[in-house]
Amino acid sequence: MSTTFADLQISAPLLTILRERKMETPTPVQSEAIPLIMAGRDALIESPTGTGKTFAYLLPILSKINMEQKDVQAIVLAPTHELVVQIAREAESLLPGKDTAVMSIIGGVDVKRQIERLKKKPVLIVATPGRLLELIDQRKLKVHEVKTVVVDEADRMLDAGFGKPVQEVMKKTLRDTQRLLFSATIAEEVVHTAEIFTRDAAVIRAAAPEGAAGVAHMYLVTDPRKKVDTLRRLLRLVNVRSSIVFVNQIEKVDEIVSKLNYHHLPCRLLHRDATKEERARTLQQFRDGAFPVLITTDVSARGIDIPGVECIVHYDPASDADTYIHRSGRTGRMGRAGLVFSIITTQERFIIQKFSKQTGLPIAEKFMSHGALEDPRPVRKPAPAQKSGAPTKNASPAKRNQNRAHKKGSFGTK
């Protein structure tokens, strides 16, 4: 008998919302994580991208929150503006009619407006760690009633860029505050680092849902000068409604955008240098299907859930295997099928081989021919060279006679 959300002690109002969405059966990560979170345990939880990690922590947290107590009772930390906004929207959708219960806090916006919003007494805050720490240090935000802190995308949040502010936020909360870390990839270094601020944390490594359609991983080898044309041909060949193309440097993007638009493949660029409003508008238009191709740096590789993305293209190789996993995880979410391609040069082949070994994913080489993806043709070994003047096994009678005549001419006759 399969587990249901009702079996996991989710609150009645949340169960009603889940039933309206026709969500009855939890995913593996939800089945494993929710009981631990409801019991108050600290935990590090790894699960493939698109398997329902956000609901794995929001459902138990919101089930336990006291809506009558007008204090911040839970904090979710995330690395990017886009992911913060996405998580906050999911939380708001689970609390209909409670417009001030959830608040998102990000850098780059008017801090005075955020301070004013805090006066409305939210119970759940979703934030980037830098701005959150700033408000705590200014004593504009009290965290003494916080019962749970979630660190989403934990592997990135504990690296050199985010690690210090995340740990500072942890220090501001009480020692018995529940600490939860979620990510698609949790390496042993992350487990070791988390020991500093967790207590007897459980480590869960959940599987993908059974019956998942799966994601096919492939790569194409091309000349560096032909990469844009290879991308254009690939997008035409797969002919899907929604693709994300990852690049490492935005300097390359102008040529890509120009060529794709010229060939009637409408695309837009999403990158860190754009304003918050521009990024939000571009993402929403992509979600709405206003254009089929989103070109982005790794700003979109973490946690962004865009339903229906059918194809991911690594125009530039990911920096490491974990980044490859996170980028690729924008497709095939919740068990759907998906396509992942890497466009590489001959010199970059070793990178794909390394990623395949480190992730355990088969990444197959393909080439495009006559509108189809085909396997590389096996390289034929050259036939062994024949000795000069020696007749071949399958030589014609005329050829054999010619060889004999040649020998006579060479050595003469008696």
Automatic annotation (TrEMBL):
GO terms of biological process kind: response to cold
CDD domains to which the protein is assigned, alphabetical: DEADc, SF2_C_DEAD
Domain Helicase ATP-binding residues, every copy: 34-204
Keyword hit for Nucleotide-binding: yes
Record keywords, A-Z: ATP-binding, Helicase, Hydrolase, Nucleotide-binding
Molecular function as annotated in GO: ATP binding; hydrolase activity; RNA helicase activity; RNA strand annealing activity
Region (Disordered): 369-414
Basic residues bias spans: 401-414
Listed Pfam families: DEAD, Helicase_C
Domain Helicase C-terminal positions: 230-374
PANTHER family, sorted: ATP-DEPENDENT RNA HELICASE YFML-RELATED, DEAD-BOX ATP-DEPENDENT RNA HELICASE 47, MITOCHONDRIAL
Name of the protein described by the UniProt record: DEAD/DEAH box helicase
Species of origin: Brevibacillus formosus
